[in-house]
Amino acid sequence: MARLVDDEEWRSDKRRSWSAILRRLVCHMDWDTGLITGLTTQRLGAAGDRAERTVSRVLAWARDRGLLVVVEPGASAEFLGTEAGRTPTYALVTHSPLPKLPVDADSAPLQHQVSRGQATVDENGDLPTTHVATKPLSGGRRTQLSPQHQWHPYDVPDTPGARNAATLSLITLLGLGGRKASKIEIWRARALLKPWWEAGATVAGLRHALEHHPDRPDQPRGPVTTDARDPLRVIGARLRPWQGRLHEIRAVQIGAMRAAAAAKNRPANRAALTPPTPPTHTPLDRTMLDRPAGRAARQAARDALHNHLHHTRTRRAATQTTTPHPKTGHSR
Description:
By secondary structure, this protein is mainly α. 45% of the residues lie in helices and 5% in strands.
């Protein structure tokens, strides 16, 4: 545990508090079974003088590093129907066998060469068999999220999928992704940025617009997410002065040139990739040209459907009327 903590580049106060929380887990472990039970997040937080959400981060870090395994999840008193709830059951894992103290081989047999304080787990380093039937489905590790497709910062998104990818790229670029993604609502971000994408903005252009004012281009405005309760409102307020002036941003000009070049090359690429198809001649009925399908045809289709449903209901009702009742024998 100390080696894993030393490998992290943490501040001294964080290293001290997190080590105290992990040390509390070690001190609360049952040395006969290797399990940690009856330990609440309040007691863990009090050990490191931290809040309960910090304890959750410590446990998540320990699970990701392979140090901690959740053997049995906790449950509330309402769920169990009891006066008190159930705390989670943890187990600490080591990936190396326990050290053995030197013992004289002549004075003790082979099966007793392990000191008395080291026989708490198997000699190969595996945990003892637990009597708890519930096992974590993910093996005690959080599943990895699928990587998002990155959008080129100088491309203009022109489709719904491209606008969504550009929005996610801009949010990640501003530092609102990952654990800070809960500070914003993604649907609000899409609705806020959609007019700007349709106006020809790019990811690099919107980043420049957020960091500079059109009337004071030489003065940086600072980061968007610093001490902001609603970052999307800050983004909307900073983009508002750029309405009708996106063409002044160099990154937007580059995006327009890239879009024009792609549109110019697109027909040539399609003609090169698509094989020539022979012309097909479909015979036309000259009488149908004078009577095109219009309101009358739609009304005829509705009438045909109505008649079909009416006959179906009538036939079903007649079948139910002639069917004898299973108890009385009379027809319904």
